[in-house]
Amino acid sequence: MKRTNVKELLKSTEYDKEVTVQGWVRTKRDSKQVVFIALNDGSIIHNIQAVAAIDAFPEELLKSITTGACVQVKGMLVKSPGQGQSVEIQAKEISIYGLADETFPLQKKGHTLEFLREIAHLRPRTNTIGAIMRIRHAMAYGIHKYFNDNGFYYLHAPVITGSDAEGAGEMFRVTTLDLNNPPKNEDGSINYNEDFFGKETNLTVSGQLEAETAAMALSKVYTFGPTFRAENSNTPRHLAEFWMIEPEMAFYDINDNMDVAEDMLKYLVKYALDNCLDDLTFLNNMYDKELLNRLNMVKDSTFKRITYTEGVDILIAANKKFEFKPEWGKDLQKEHENHLVDHFKCPVIITDYPRGIKAFYMKQNEDGKTVRAMDVLFPYVGEIIGGSQREENYDKLIARIREMGLPEKEMWWYLELRKFGTAPHSGFGLGLERLILFVTGMTNIRDVIPFPRTPKNAEF
Ligand code: ATP
Ligand code: MN
After folding, report:
1. Which residue(s) pair with 306 in the sheet?
2. pLDDT band at 167 (very low <50, low <70, confident <90, very high)
3. Protein residue closest via CA to atom 11 of ligand 1
4. Does the pTM exceed 0.90?
């Protein structure tokens, strides 16, 4: 059957042509002679109006069509005499796929985002969540396009990992053992030899270590997949399951790494402005009047690059009452990151963090105190990217692993990358949902992923 989606219809100027459209009823309004039905099919935020003459349809049929129902309308596409739309459909034939009774929860407009989270199965049918889902799609596509156009290969990193050495966060165990009656060793500990993989396995917290293996052959690769962290942090910026993009580049140093991060983020913001303006305008008007300004500002900005040490100096000089006193050697808190972004009024990249607060694999600087880490801090969301140049020197890496008491044996394959044809290399992790928070202006990460996974919450 020939059908046209709402997006195409609203653009069309081929009047007095018969069209078929399918979608869900957003609102129905009666007047004396006609019924106005606003239909949406998700192809665009706007609805198309179907106009049904009362005497052309059985009364029962028109009465049964209410908000939430799913229908097909055949009719003439005409120039709309009314305000608010350029075209409308004069209905000739209406068929019903599914009715929705008065218990359909999205009757009126203006539900809170909190309420919508409780009906995650229906919330895609709202303007807000529909807009966010289209933007999320565009960003995912833009990410693949950016990397493809810049010579990167897409690497599928494993979701189940046997290495617990990544150290990026608490992990979710993967097991087929009977939790009520697990096999035990003589000393009473659980015998994982009998588990599915014959060893302890977990859901991945990062695909970086695997990406490094591929970068040592294909030069430029990226992962883009689900990532799991069992941190019990119930914040508006953390999910237990989120999507991470992790490029890894051979022959790139920390400065090249920053260039990629900055170029990609600006490309993506521009991509959103170029491709999602209807949805962004809706979110701007509905939730955050600064959204479009902020996106345009970042698109045209040059990110400020400072060292951690310079950052701490700025924080101390600010003479401000922070909850956590800024002090060299301590991790930057959210309030510190916010202050630095406000200070420069643009995205900030912070490099050369103290080695004590960063991961074992980061390249050690000559000073013996800092490592070549880089965090990208954004206005509004804070940390959006964490990355580094990697330690490519075998002796330095193994010394660090021993110093930190990490399981050296299990890291044999990661270490071998430094034994056979090692090369300087760098990479970073971008949290997709943090990017979507920034681009949509939403304030809670639970609203930018279709089915959020957070502590005590996996209903849908
Ligand atoms: P944070 O300090 O914000 O908790 P992190 O330093 O633990 O993040 P990294 O290990 O550097 O995070 O991960 C790289 C990126 O992945 C982060 O910059 C962020 O964009 C994203 N990210 C990390 N943890 C989460 C999470 N729990 N939920 C959503 N995104 C996350
Ligand atoms: Mn980080």
Report:
1. 350
2. low
3. 386
4. yes
Q: Is the beta carbon of 244 within 6 A of some atom in ligand 1?
A: yes
- DSSP string of 169-214, one letter each residue: S---EE--S-TTS--B-TTSSB-GGGSTTSS-EEE-S-SHHHHHHH
Distance 431 CA to ligand 1 centre (A): 6
User: Is residue 381 in contact with ligand 1, taking CB distance under 6 Å?
Assistant: no
Strand order across the 160-161 sheet: 160-161, 201-203, 173-174
Ligand 1 centroid to residue 230 C-alpha, Å: 12
d(CA 326, CA 320): 10
Nearest ligand for residue 332 CA: 1
Task: Convert the pLDDT of each residue in 311-345 to its tens digit.
Answer: 999 999 999 999 999 999 999 999 999 999 999 99
pLDDT tens string 271-310: 999 999 999 999 999 999 999 999 999 999 999 999 999 9
What is the DSSP track for 115-178?
HHHHTTTTGGGSHHHHHHHHHHHHHHHHHHHHHHHTT-EEE---SEES-----SS---EE--S-
Closest ligand 1 atom to Cα of 229: 27
Determine whether the shortest distance from the Cβ of 242 to ligand 1 is under 6 A: yes
With a 6 Å cutoff on the Cβ, whether 238 touches ligand 1 is yes
Task: Quote the pLDDT of residue 84.
Answer: 79
Q: Is the CB of 385 under 6 A from ligand 1?
A: yes
Task: Name the residue of 244, 246, 435 to mutate for ligand 1: max ligand atoms within 8 A of Cβ.
Answer: 244
Residues shown for the chain: 460
Q: Give the number of the atom of ligand 1 that is nearest the alpha carbon of residue 428.
A: 14
Cβ neighbours around 97 below 10 Å, total: 11
Mean of the pLDDT values across residues 425-438?
A: 98
Ligand nearest to the CA of 454: 1
Q: Are 142 and 266 in contact (CB under 8 A)?
A: no
Closest CA to 74 of 1, 12, 10: 1
* Integer Cα distance of 155 and 376 in angstroms: 23
pLDDT, tens digit (0-9, with 9 covering 90-100), for 116-166? 999 999 999 999 999 999 999 999 999 999 999 999 999 999 999 987 656
Task: Please give the single-letter amino acid code of residue 377.
Answer: L
